[in-house]
Amino acid sequence: MINISTRNRILIALVCVLGLLYAAPNFFAKDTFSNWPSWLPGQQINLGLDLQGGSHLLLEVDTNTVIAERLSGVEDSVRRLLRSAKIKYKGLGVRNLAVVFSTRDPSLTENVETKLAEEFKASTLDQFGSPTREIYVEAAGDGSFSLTLTEEAVSARIDSTVAQSIEIIRRRIDETGTREPTIQRQGKERILVQLPGVDDPERIKKLLGKTAKLNFHMVDEVNSQSASLRGSVPPGSMLVPSEDAGPSGQPENVLVRKRVQVGGDRLVDAQATFQDNQPVVSFRFDTVGGRKFANTTKGNVGKRLAIVLDKKVISAPRVNEPILGGSGIISGSFSVQEAQDLALLLRAGALPAPITILEERTVGPGLGQDSIDAGQIASIIGLIFVLIYMILSYGIFGVMANIALFFNIALILALLSALQATLTLPGIAGIVLTIGMAVDANVLVFERIREETANGRTPISSVDSGYRRAITTIIDANLTTLIAAVLLFAFGSGPIKGFAVTLSIGILTSMFTAIMVTRLLIVLWLRRVRPIKLPI
Amino acid sequence: MKLLKLVPANTAFDFVGKRLLAFVMSGFLILASLGLFFTQGLNLGIDFLGGILIEIKTDGPADLGALRTKLGNLNLGDVTLQEFGAPNDVLIRVQKQDGGDSGQQAAIDAVKNALGDVVVEYRRTEFVGPTVGAELREAATWAVLMAIGAILMYVWFRFEWQFGVGAVIALVHDVITTIGLFSLIQLEFNLATVAAVLTIAGYSINDTVVVYDRVRENMRRYKKMPMAELLNNSLNQTLSRTTMTSVTTLLALVALYIFGGEVIRGFSIALIWGVIIGTYSSIWLAVPFLLYVRPRRGGEESEGEYSKAKAL
Fold first, then answer.
1. N or C: which terminus of chain A has fewer CB atoms within 10 Å of its end residue's CB?
2. Residue of chain A nearest B249, judged by CA positions
3. Is A364's CB within 8 Å of B201's CB?
4. Which residues 239-258 on chain B approach chain A with CB closer than 8 angstroms?
5. Which element (helix H / strand E) includes A237?
């Protein structure tokens, strides 16, 4: 153990130098190294949101609504199909994620089954682009049918819904000017959004919480609204609550036609602007949407057109003249911020399904900076305590362990920078803990050397067998801690993962520095000083 | 220079002889911990219960009474306020709201609106919905169980099963008493605490393994020595290292406790406790336990292992 080949000496020195190089950028201002050649290490440690401030949001896409929508689409197709084939049916509806109905005449079962199979053959594509069956038709034989979505179809629909949601969320967040957001899918129907530097995410949360589905409906002015309010809504119309309170102080309900004249998916632009000193949102349709809008307004001059956003009527202005240019204005009682947000939402597009916020963790920049400062002070003071104690306990050997500890910290910082791992507040705690535990390997060796010296061995032989005997213990002891750290990483979330990362890195680097660096220092010292008695 | 030695060079403490004292004490600690856990329970944080936590900085020393009245009028159920580290720093906890995951955001809005102008800075806003809370609880339990299992496997693989069982007894003892401590002082038990518990598990086992290594070595070397004497010798030989490492780790942790800020104070307390109890349990539980299970005394002392180590 006291013979270290020149090659190994060079390797150890190289690792230490690289550690210093990679750790160094963290001690300078952020942009100091932006002009350096790219092959030089210039990366700083990635600070977690709890240190740099920012917001972590875990969202869930309500994919059930998408599945329900699709099933109700299937229900419509079945109804159309049966009607056009003049087949009498009963009990058509969606129950337990299946479209069910039965024919009045059980002898038609086979006929209907063929028709359904024809209607729903290969209506979806799998992930490789080849057609797969979307709908599974089950006939009981007594004329009752049950149509369910196949597992592949459900997961394909969930996948595309989540992917689309991510895209819309990204657009909305980008529009707010947040820099470097991270938006990624997590699990089946969750989306993780990380917004560094955002200290009050209320606006963004509001933006994300809105589906922003915009539709233009004609107001039903033929049927009596008051009759509908009492419960007799005519078929083809629906009651939609109004955004604003009516004269009575309660939100008014507006009776509108179910048919969508134009949808918000046809919008190409929307901007907040002013009209008569009121904030409004101007919008522009694409060609198709513009034509539809023109036709609608042409045919309905003098009638009211309801602008419905997320199942609420924003306003229902009267059409004074045909609007042919494909653009228009939404007025309502908006504040400037509300108009801007609505325009943003319309530009970014509607979410395919509603989103719920499952978890939020926001740290303001003040607390983040305080945590960094506190972490730094704790690390430095903890380090000083340990350094002094090691020298008091082991003298010159303590000095060598301290040099190794110094390189150990450099290596931790270097690895964190090079791997671009995220440093969190518990991560800093991990470093402090490592500072305390890092010397353990050295302590194990030194205590062995003490024992061997006490047994009357020569200095060189004491050091040699001290290392030999301590090394298995060091490995056993560290591997068990590493197991705990790896499990922490696997099960922990966010900041806790950060703790696991620094703890694991710390264990590995402390084994390296204790076994390699301290040993090299001691060997060099032994050869140079050739002590007759070890001062330990 | 006269070197500092907390533990003199040749100690001969009779640890094993006084083991009953330790067993009684540990038995008491464990029973008390379990008793506290089942009667008083843990002060679970929002990580596990779901709910809202908001830390604010106010423009002057906070008037907790006024804030409490203000927030109490919102009908959000249980709202607690607490000074957090400084007189103008307030921690607000709001219990989980009805209405599933979607019902929670409105409560955050309501609190922020009610607080209004007294707030200079929103230091933290944490919200955990009921779904995530339940998931985190499950994941945390699994992490602790898996860690204990994995450590047992490792020690079993490296030593004999008797050592594995002894190590896990000490480990479980440390974990249970840590939970007992949290129940006793009603310190918030959250995700960070679980991280601390797992670290304690790692530290405790680390300590135990070091002593066990020496026991195994002595068992190979002194085949005729009575087990109790051999265990005592092993403990005394490693005592200096055990204290040394505990002290350096404690030094770092005390620095973390004092200077690390309010947010990780609970975490530091758990770790400090863990180091103390982990050291205690390796000496007083893990090693004396071996007396009862009598691990097999192996063959001749093998040089093979050392040469293997040398190659590393």
1. N
2. A436
3. no
4. 240-241, 244-245, 247-256, 258
5. strand A237-245
